[in-house]
Every structure is written in C-alpha cells, then in structure tokens.
Amino acid sequence: MQERSERTRRRLVYAGAEMFHRNGYANATLGEIASAAGVTKGALYFHFASKDELAEAVQQRGCALLHDSVRALREAGTPPLQALIDTTHWLAWTLHADPAVAASFRITKECGPPTRGPAGTRPAVVDFHAAWISAVSTLLRLARDAGELRAQGRAWDSAQALVVAAACGIEVMSGTGMPYGELQRKVTALWALLLPALVAEDRAREYRTQAAAVMGSEHTTGPEHLTGTRHTTGPERTAGTGHPADPGPAGRTAPPPSREPARPPGSSNSDSDSDGGGSAVRDGTGDAGRDGARDAETVRSSR
C-alpha cells in the first residue's frame, strides 16, 4: 500500500511539473494534472491539499536534482572549475529532459521572489533562480580558493558577475525552444570564451568544455524515476574522456507536450482511486550549504 501511494505521488509530481512548465502556474489546473497523472482528483487531494503544495513539491524536486548533481561531482573529486562547467551542461540537458527544473524556474518567475510572513515562517515560493546562482557562485569560489583561477581582488568580482550572468543565460536560451543539440553547442562555445578569462593560458587545455559523454544515457526521465535516489550525471564515469558528446537527441526541442506519464511497472488503474491511507514520502532537497545550492525552504501557501 505504501509503495502504491509513493508511485501515485511521483506521477503527480511529474505531471504537475509538465503542466506548470507548459501552461504556467496560474493556468495549470489540478483537474488537468490529475488526468495527466492518470489518477482521480480525490487521489490528488490525498497527497496535495492545494496547487501551492504541489508546486512546492515540484520545486523541491528541481532543487534536489540540482543539489544531487553538484554533490555527485564533488564527491567524485572533480576539480571545482570542471564541476562548474559540467553543472552548466547538466542544466542545459535537464531543462530538456526533466520538467521539474524548467517548471521550478517558471514558478519562481510567475510567483515572484519569496516573501516571509510572520516571524518563524518560511517563504511560500522556492527561489530557484537564487538556488542556481548560489550553486554557480559556490563552485566558482571553490575554484578560486583551490588556486584554479587567476582572478583576484576586484578582478574576482568581475569574473563572478560574468560567469553568473552567462550561467543564467542558459535557462533563457532554453526557454526560446532551442533544440538541445544547439543549446549544448552554445554552452561549449560559451566556455571556450570564458576559460581564457578565468585561468592561465597554459592551463585552459586541462578542462573539458564539452558535455560529459554519459549525461544523456544516465539521465532517465519519467515519474517512475522521481525517487529519493541520487541523480547522477556521472563525472566519475567520464573522467579522462575529453571528447565532445551529444548525450541527447540533437534535434530534440523543448520538453514534449503534456502527456500521460508511463505507469511504473506493476502499477494499475487501481492506484488512482485510493491510496489506502498510506503516507506520502516527501522529496528532500539536500544540504544546500554543502552542495553549493540554496536550500529549498518552502511552506504551504494560502495565496
């Protein structure tokens, strides 16, 4: 019963992410989300009391993906600057491959910056832009502290501003409907220009500017994979490859139109009618301070 409840919740989070990304927070309806997930509206309310609560779960999912990707790179011993390069490629791929990240950006833009209510309460909206900027800035700072960068003092401020602005532009380019293959090439070209400004000329060739070869094969989308397991883009599996790769279908455009997610193996329509009182397992967002990304502090909103 518990497993069935968790499967239903994962389908709802996935369907919610697709609808929020495709239609926006205001225009996405709980009825459409329930239908896309293949469950009844009553089953949806069993897991999420409101659209705000479902949006919170989607953003928590997006933050968890970001945190886990950064964590995997750091635990693999990837140098901070290479980890930063790989993280920007991860974003380009994930914006096309998993609707939770794209939806998290859109919810943040539509609902505005998080505001705090009475003392002790948390913001109602996750600021996913802030989480992304924090991850990029932290990895860049770690690269500076490790002696990888030549920028110091006032030059450091300029380098940080340039890299952060460039990293934020990846989401903007993806939002235009740019095919993944083209976006990947632009991120590669971006680093070809940034690296000479960040590191000594004789060290620039030490870094791989292309996407990791394993990125597309390891990243599997679909509600059946929205679990608490680590989302890996496999830096430990790509070290030393040093060759360009197109991890996804080069002609793929923005995430496909909303569809009913494939049911996990062993599930049936009975999942949609009742969850038997099983408690849902909430997705964690990881330790933002450790991973270089801001914690997803969220709370149910009564907007």
Unreliable sequence segments:
119-123, 227-303
Mean model confidence by pLDDT: 75
Measured as a percent range, the helix fraction is 55-70%
Number of strands: 0
The biggest beta sheet, please? none
Name the beta content range. under 5%
Helix count equals 13
Task: Quickly give the structural class.
Answer: mainly alpha
The 3D shape can be described as elongated
Task: Report the end-to-end length measured between terminal Cα atoms.
Answer: 33 Å
* Helix and strand run: HHHHHHHHHHHHH
| CA-atom Rg in angstroms | 20 Å
Secondary structure elements and pairings:
Layout: H1 2-23, H2 30-37, H3 41-47, H4 51-75, H5 80-97, H6 99-111, H7 128-145, H8 154-175, H9 180-198, H10 215-218, H11 235-238, H12 270-273, H13 288-291
Helix pairs in contact: 1-2, 1-4, 1-6, 4-5, 4-6, 4-7, 5-6, 5-7, 5-8, 5-9, 7-8, 8-9
